[in-house]
Amino acid sequence: MGLSLFAVHLSDGALATAWWASGFGGLAVLLAVAMWKVREEAIPRIGVLTAAFFVASSIHLPLVVIPTSVHLILNGVVGVVLGRRAPLAIAVGLFLQYRLIGHGGLTTIGINACIVGVPALAAGVLYPVLRTLRVPTFVRGAVLGGGAVAGAVVLNFLALLLGGKENWERLAQLVLVAHIPIVIIEGLMLGVLVSYLEKVKPEMLS
User: Fold this and answer.
1) By Cβ atoms counted within 10 A, which residue in 16, 47, 138, 142 is the most buried?
2) 49 lies in which domain range?
3) How many domains does the chain have?
4) CA angle at residue 153 from 171 to 112, to 5 degrees?
5) Cα–Cα nearest to 93, from 71, 75, 119, 118
6) What is the value of pTM for the model shown?
7) What confidence tens digit (pLDDT) does each residue in 44-58 have?
8) What are phi and psi of 68, to 5 degrees?
9) What is the Cα–Cα distance from 152 to 120, expressed in whole angstroms?
10) Is 204 inside a domain boundary?
């Protein structure tokens, strides 16, 4: 199971029961907030971001030192575009990843959604704050894109370290290092994306 945990999507059997069970409680709270007064015109946007989040899991970057790969997460993009609706896209995307490509686990969908979704929500909240502070658009996107991935990786690290059924300390440390390229790539991606959207369709940003 070890190498499969590099994906920041914890597999079945990785965590103690109390941890994955509490993950569903956390997901219920996130979804309750996300679904509150969803407007009909928001549904297509949620669908598009769900698809993008799902497809990102198939874009893998091979690692040189370790015989495995890591993939894009896009939780920063989802958070900045969807705001508090982000957990909807993330939860559905994680379920599709499990059912269609066997990525992650059924019992861990809840905690995986929290690990990826909480930084996404933070990115959505912080984007208008940084805009109000007149932080340059590209910098805004780069900080939140990379920061959302880094946040997910750190939460994944803590879950493995504190809630693992086995001693995952070394693996948890490797996960942190392995995702440094993803942090950089997604930071640059969101920086470019928000620079474009601010010019052509600023209402899409949270």
Assistant:
1) 142
2) 2-197
3) 1
4) 95
5) 75
6) 0.89
7) 999 999 999 998 877
8) -155, -170
9) 9
10) no
